[in-house]
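Students often ask why we bother predicting the structure of a whole assembly rather than each chain alone. The short answer is interfaces. A chain on its own may look different once its partners are present, and contacts between molecules only exist in the joint model. In this exercise we take two input lines together and write out one structure for the complete complex. Read the inputs first and try to guess which parts will touch.
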Amino acid sequence: MTAEVEVREVAQRARVASRSLALATRAEKDATLHAMADALLARADEILAGNAEDVARAEADGTPPNIIDRLRLTADRLEGMAQGLRDVAGLADPVGEVVRGSILANGLELRQVRVPFGVVGMIYEARPNVTADAAGICLKSGNAVLLRGSSSARSSNAAIVAVLRDAVAASGLDPDVVQLVPGDSHDSVKALMRARGLVDVLIPRGGAGLIQSVVNDSTVPVIETGVGNCHVYVDRAADLDKAVAIVLNAKTHRSSVCNAAESLLVHADVAEELLPRVVAALQEAGVTIHGDDAFAGYDGVLAATDEDWAQEYLSLDIAARVVPDLDAALEHIRTWSSGHTDAIVTEDQGAARRFVAEVDSAAVLVNASTRFTDGGEFGFGAEIGISTQKLHARGPMGLPEMTSTKYVVIGDGHVR
Amino acid sequence: MTAEVEVREVAQRARVASRSLALATRAEKDATLHAMADALLARADEILAGNAEDVARAEADGTPPNIIDRLRLTADRLEGMAQGLRDVAGLADPVGEVVRGSILANGLELRQVRVPFGVVGMIYEARPNVTADAAGICLKSGNAVLLRGSSSARSSNAAIVAVLRDAVAASGLDPDVVQLVPGDSHDSVKALMRARGLVDVLIPRGGAGLIQSVVNDSTVPVIETGVGNCHVYVDRAADLDKAVAIVLNAKTHRSSVCNAAESLLVHADVAEELLPRVVAALQEAGVTIHGDDAFAGYDGVLAATDEDWAQEYLSLDIAARVVPDLDAALEHIRTWSSGHTDAIVTEDQGAARRFVAEVDSAAVLVNASTRFTDGGEFGFGAEIGISTQKLHARGPMGLPEMTSTKYVVIGDGHVR
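Now the answer. The structure tokens for the assembled complex follow.
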């Protein structure tokens, strides 16, 4: 069988299974999520054995240790995956929520209610915990899910999905609501991207290359996630203690994630006072600064090029520049930001107001670290990714973002 | 210049203009909308002269009279276009609406607020009134718009856009928020579909062929609109007087539009009583019935094929079938519906509940004509189209559907 035929076959089964899942009650879905969590722990040996195969293969291939660390599962990490499923069970069911409703002038009752998409395709890299997270969030939001992880995690993902499917079936739901996309080749990814009509939405999670290729080649609607070239702009009217703390936190709290700061902009009026402090604080934390001329005067600062302004380092590096005014900061952000998260540090209400209005990003922060752009921090309880597109969802996506809506109109023989 | 260069140039100008429009106040936008309405009437002669050229060309080309009627503008129709702009001015501004907001446990203030998309591309057919409607809705929702009407209406559209741009400029806004896409060839449509990054969303309005080609070829995100193969299912527990009235209204009130009924399903238990009545009522109204064996027993009913179940006639034709039960009706709708609007006629609460839950369409109606799926009828005040996709917007799209959102987070030196 070709990859296309295989993929369309699993997608078709997912489509059929999604119909009964869409009608499942919250109680049924929550019981299933708890059963999935129990099964992950009860059958930890199988999952860890599968994972050990992936780790051994990666080591034999000379994979760098930090990537192997992401790939590796432990009893603790399995416990975390199980807890994640239980947390999703604790969240409100988005399906059936009435988004708006009214009685029209002619007496028709109008309601807009949340319904599942149907079938969601996830294309993701590295971490096998995404497999359980995505299965849980999709199940709770009433969607069947087709999972296409990276081939480096194939044994882990196969083991996890086998365990989850058994738990789903034992709970009385159709196990085809959770399926792996068969095949390891790029052909199977391509087939998934072309399964318009069978798959309702594709969510790629991973590096910029993966996301761009899905966005360009997919005929299935895509929700673009995650590339973050995030800025912190320290305004003329900034409290410099807050500024140093925010820059340091935004850059170093966890540098490998999309909401870490990658660029620092400083208003010229505070440069003389701020630069020595912020350079010292960053360098002490092990950060390499790629700076403009003003920054390059400090020991250890590398000279920045346009490439640095564009860069999502995902490492302990930061681009840094002094700007003459707020307008120049806004212009820099307009030119280089990826539209994920940008922050201003200022005590000036007018500057904050302009920054919030004019920066066109999924999240715009005042006097807070970029690291707060996160479904957990925002109180959504679970997050399938952070959308950087404007259609459908923008910013952290929780359960409601995993649904569509339908209009329900009740009359009593109404005609026009 | 190639079409691509030309289109990218206007899109770039629209992008720049969209930035100031996004910051315009409601008062500024409403004053501009009234100025646009005034200008349409004050310069009616220019517009009617442009339209006369299009009509003359269409007549010389042997265009059918009903298409020419759609193309033709009159003083009355211009008055309607102007009134449409004034109506949009009267609607609430979606920009800045707080969709949700809270204070997080750590004291961060979180708000999700509506913001414009930026630049919207409209690709549409025939009627020149869409040019003014789309310009008004986009302006009010803070979006610059690139208009690509059909070449048969090119002189009308050029005249309308020239008048509207002058009015926008006289009101103090950048006239590049309303622009025609240059060029008449398909190359310019293609360039618009590939202007990802410059154009935020494309909305095709027209026949199934146009919409499919945009959906397949566009790298810019698309909101799919309008194809309607709408069903009316008359249940065993239907009130047959209501059923006849609803079927007749859904089919004949205006047969050329997407929310007209195209298929009739009748429960076998009421077929004997209903069929003679509904066949007589439809035929009296000039409707041609394409029926299954049960319907084909009546004089003048044509035998239906699978093509009829799939058909969006947009004419005084209807496909008709007797089904053994509700399950068969649901299965027929699942197989053939375009997911626009489907209606059940029943007095049985259980049947209504199942139909509403299981029919996966943008609008599901109980005891009401399919003709109610409409932005005006739903009380939205203005409608840019009816989305039949699940991402972003589903069903009639008013002003809020023409926006994205952004998260605004206010702290006081918050770090993680």
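Check your guess against this: Chain B touches chain A through 69 residues (CB under 8 Å).
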